[in-house]
Amino acid sequence: MTQRYARITGWGKYVPARRLTNYDLEQMVDTNDEWITHNTGIRERRIADPGETAVDMALQASRIALEHAGMQPEELDLIVFATSTPDYLVPAAASLLQDRLGARGTPAFDLNAGCTGSIYALVTASQFIRTGMYERVLVVGAEKLSIGIDYTDRNTAIMFGDGAGALVLEASNSPTGVLSFELGSDGAQWDALYCPGGGGANPFSEKVLNQREHYLRMDGKRVYKFVAKTITRSIQNVVESSGLPFSEIDYLIPHQSNVRIVEMIASRLKFDLSKVMVNLDRYGNTSAAAIPIAIADAADQGKIKEGDHIILAGFGAGLTWGTAVLHWEPTKPAEEQAILVENWPIREALQLQANKMRAAVWSAQVTARTKAQEASMSVMVPFYTWQRKRKKAKEQHEGNAPGEQ
Fold first, then answer.
1. What is the model's pLDDT at position 207?
2. Got the DSSP string for 228-263?
3. What pairing do the DSSP bridges indicate for beta strands 136-143 and 78-82?
4. Residue 341: what pLDDT?
5. 8 A C-beta contact, residue 283 and residue 146
6. Calpha distance 336→170 (Å, rounded)
7. pTM of the predicted model, to two decimals?
8. In this predicted structure, what is the pLDDT of residue 399?
9. Which of 50, 214, 265, 275 is the most buried (most CB within 10 A)?
10. Could you tell me the CA-to-CA distances from 110 to 87, 97, 304, 386 in Å, in that order?
11. Which residues of the chain are modeled with pLDDT < 50?
C-alpha cells in the first residue's frame, strides 16, 4: 500500500518596516524595557502602517513562498488563510488574496483558531493533499494585531506585533511533511484571551467604544497555566504517534509568545535550547503568523536542513492547541517512488517497534519531570504568597509603631 504526503516546497515571510521597541512603549504605558525583556523576552515588534492590511502582508509572504517552490499562482488548487484580523468581516481574506495573487478560480477560505491557526491550516491543507483531492496548496498566516491592541493596557501592549508567513505544499509519494499531529480546544476557557466587543454577542456600539471593548483582553496567568498543562503532553503524543524516537527530533519551533513558556517546554522535554527557534525578541507574538514566520527564518538561516525532523507547537485563543511532527525535505527527489508506510522513515518493521518502546520510555520521563515541576510550583507559590503577606504585615506594624508618627 502506498500513501500520499504533503511536501513543503516553499516558504516566505513579510514583516512591516516600522519597529515598536520596549523603549517606545515606556512612553505609552507603565512599563520598562528591563521588565518586558526579563518577563517575555520581547525587545521589539513590527507594526503595520495604517493603510497596510493582513492581506497586503500575506500577499508579500505568499509571493516569496511561491518563488521558493518554483510555482505560479494559477497552479494552486487551494488557499487556506489563517487569521484573526481579516481585512473585512465579509468577504474572507483568502478570497482577496486569491484575486490579488492571480490564482483565478482557486478555492480559498479563512480559518480562525487564534495563535494556533497556522497549525490548523497546515494540517487542513495536508489532509486535502493526502486524500488525493488537491495537489498544490498555499497555507498563509497573517495578522494585523495592532488594530486590536489597547496601548494603555500593559498586559497586551507589550506582547503583540504584525506580520505574515506562508508555506507551499505539494503532493508527494515520499514520506515527508506532516507525519503526525494533534489538534485540540478547551472552549471553557474562551474568555482567557478574547475581544469582548464587535461580534454578534456584543455588536459594535458607542458603549463598546467607550468601554474599550473592541480591544483584545488577555488573562496571562490562565493562558500560561493552560499551556503548562497541555502542550508538553501534546508533544509527547505526536512524537509517539510519528513512529520516531525523540532522539531523532532535530529542531523545535514553538509558538512565539513568551520566552518563559519556550524555556518551560524545552526544560520538560530536556531539549537543547540551541535547537529551539526563537525570534519573538524581534517580532513579538504575531499570532497565526508566528509559526510560518519562524519556519521561514529557520530555513533561511540554515537552522533546519534537508531531512530534519521538526516539532511544531502552537497554542492560543479558544483556548486552542496544535502540535505536529514535520519532516523537512523541500527538495524533490529526482524520481519520487512509492514507499511503504510501514518502512517510514526508511527502517524495517522490527526497528519501528523498538522505536515505539524508546518513545514510550522518553514520554514517561517527560511526564515525571512535568509532575515534579508542577508539584514544586504547588508548594512554592503558597510559600511565597505567605512570605509576601508576612512582610507586608510587618511593614504595616512597624509603620504604626509608637514614636514613628
1. 93
2. HHHHHHHHHHHHHHHT--GGG--EEEE-SS-HHHHH
3. parallel
4. 41
5. no
6. 12
7. 0.85
8. 65
9. 265
10. 11, 11, 28, 48
11. 1, 337-344, 347-348, 402-405
Element (H, E) at 320: strand 320-328
Q: What is the CA 368 to chain-centroid distance, rounded?
A: 26
| Helix (H), strand (E) counts: the chain | 12, 13
- pLDDT computed for residue 350 by the predictor: 53
Residue that has been written with the C-alpha cell 503524543 in this structure: 237
Partners of 309 in the beta sheet? Answer: 327
| 160's grid cell | 503583540
Grid look-up 486569491 returns 98
- The C-alpha cell that represents 45 in the structure block: 515588534
What is residue 343's predicted lDDT score, i.e. its pLDDT?
Answer: 44
Amino acid of residue 256:
Q
Q: Where are the beta strands (DSSP E) in 147-227?
A: 163-172, 177-185, 193-194, 217-218
Domain boundaries, the chain: 5-362
Joined together, the cell numbers standing for residue 318 give 479558544
Distance CA 341, CA 331 (A): 20
**How many Cα neighbours within 13 Å face the side chain of 191?**
4
Tell me which residue has cell 497556522. Answer: 118
Contact (Cβ atoms closer than 8 angstroms) between residue 311 and residue 235? yes
Closest CA to 145 of 6, 323, 288, 358: 288
Say what the pLDDT of residue 18 is.
Answer: 97
CATH match for 5-362 among 3.40.640.10, 3.40.50.720, 1.10.3490.10, 3.40.47.10: 3.40.47.10
Distance CA 93, CA 144 (A): 12
Catalytic residue positions? 115, 255, 285
Q: Name every residue whose Cβ is closer than 8 Å to that of residue 114 and which is 6 or more positions away in sequence.
A: 84, 193, 287, 288, 316, 317, 318, 319, 320
Q: Indicate the SS3 state at residue 285.
A: strand
User: What pLDDT is recorded for position 372?
Assistant: 80
* 364 C-beta neighbours (distance < 10 Å), count: 11
